[in-house]
Amino acid sequence: xxxxxxxxxxxxxxxxxxxxxxxxxxxxxxxxxxxxxxxxxxxxxxxxxxxxxxxxxxxxxxxxxxxxxxxxxxxxxxxxxxxxxxxxxxxxxxxxxxxxxxxxxxx
Length: 107
Hints:
Elements: H1 14-41, H2 46-80, H3 91-106
Helix pairs in contact: 1-2
């Protein structure tokens, strides 16, 4: 028996893992932005430069990955939504069109 686990044996659905990784990446981004701010406000030194470079790289990577996860989550959300029916099949639309054409024909 698999015990209700997913085929990759991780125990979590891919959507759940994506949400968790997005939360972690946002947390890393916030911490990296804080470190970057501290490095900018520190007195000039080689250590401050290294801190700035490391904070900038970590922030850039974390934000890029968070953006990719967000795009993947949005694509999954759109794929799982039912398609929107065309407006021309709606009964209200048909009635409105009949009313509009009847009023224009009267003039």
